[in-house]
Write a structure and sequence with these properties.
Layout (H helix, E strand, L loop, with lengths): L1 H12 L8 E16 L4 E3 L3 E13 L4 E18 L3 E5 L2 E5 L4 E18 L6 E21 L4 E5 L7 E16 L2 E12 L11 E13 L1
Antiparallel strand pairs: 1-3, 1-12, 2-4, 3-4, 4-7, 5-6, 7-8, 8-9, 8-10, 10-11, 11-12
């Protein structure tokens, strides 16, 4: 974390070498999330509501193109329905979940995007943008509810990988309020690249569709 913050400071202090400079945005991302698996014996069981938000930094190398990064907290997860029995590791030990169990995963990540943002010329007070790239996720919390034995909010860090990556693509617009200040609105699709689970028995990934709202400074 300290190395990453230092990198942001170095980028900010050297931004004069970039013709269009540096901008910051505070964003809030309500989203619909889900989990899926490569196993035919595990089914996706509906969608969940998640929330993300944080700071976005755009470092422009031309008027309409920028490298984009930042730091945010992401709350995500999903429900998986297991057709077979499952040996599951909770914070207090192990348990065997019977066939037909549904596990609701509640995952929290510290997220760092590495991306490219492309913006249109100003049309009235608005600029349209496309935004695409990769997210690096560090797991900070993992709990689960299970429809068996009244299991609620159990620690499942032993089941979840510490590091995950995803790709995303989004589009939206910035509406100028004058000067460098603008309102941001957009929609994003995100899909996991790396496996969420530690087990080698199957793979699982997280996906989401999110609505981004924010303020650019």
């Amino acid at each position: 974390m300290q190395k990453y913050i230092l990198s942001l400071i170095i980028l900010a202090s050297s931004s004069q070498i970039f013709g269009q400079g540096l901008s910051f945005s505070v964003v809030f991302d309500p989203q619909i999330t889900w989990m899926s698996s490569d196993s035919k014996r595990i089914e996706r069981d509906g969608t969940n509501f998640g929330i993300g938000g944080g700071l976005v930094m755009d470092l422009y190398f031309t008027e309409n193109y920028a490298f984009s990064t930042g730091l945010s907290i992401l709350g995500t997860g999903g429900d998986l329905h297991y057709l077979d029995s499952l040996d599951f590791r909770f914070g207090g030990g192990r348990d065997t979940l019977p066939a037909g169990s549904t596990v609701k995963y509640k995952l929290q990540y510290l997220t760092i995007p590495f991306s490219l943002k492309l913006k249109s010329n100003e049309i009235g007070y608005s600029r349209f943008f496309a935004h695409l790239g990769l997210n690096a996720h560090i797991n900070t919390r993992a709990t689960a509810d299970v429809n068996y034995n009244d299991i609620k909010g159990e620690d499942i860090n032993d089941e979840i990988q510490f590091f995950m990556m995803s790709y995303f693509i989004g589009a939206g617009l910035e509406y100028s309020l004058g000067g460098n200040t603008a309102l941001i609105g957009g929609i994003y699709f995100t899909s996991g690249i790396l496996d969420v689970m530690k087990t080698e028995d199957y793979r699982a990934h997280v996906g989401s569709i999110s609505l981004r709202v924010g303020v650019k400074f």
